[in-house]
Specification:
mainly alpha, Helix Hairpins, 117 residues, 2 strands, single chain
Amino acid sequence: MTSTHNDPLRDLIRSTLDFYARFGWQPLTDDAIRVFEEEVREVTEAAQVGTDKNHIAEEAADVIVTLIGVCQASGVDPEQLISQIYAVIDKNNAKTHETHVYTDGKIRRRFPKTITS
């Protein structure tokens, strides 16, 4: 597999799927979730210690790779994942101090969504 170096998101997804194919592994949802949760614990532990930034970054990258595995196991098309990532980027870019506020450790809507029937 060759990297394009101008689309790291697609490169990472392609690399991850190629990695699975090399080992003949088609992730099952439960297995993929278990591995993902293990990696989340590892990045959480590394971040809580906080002394080795490279280790934190390495564990964070493992979380992203295993999340791709969860999506693959769940039948999510890679292009659908990429589309949703860009949708989240657009949503985050649209948030302002007028629309959102930081409270209780999270950025939240200033005014809750109104439900219409």
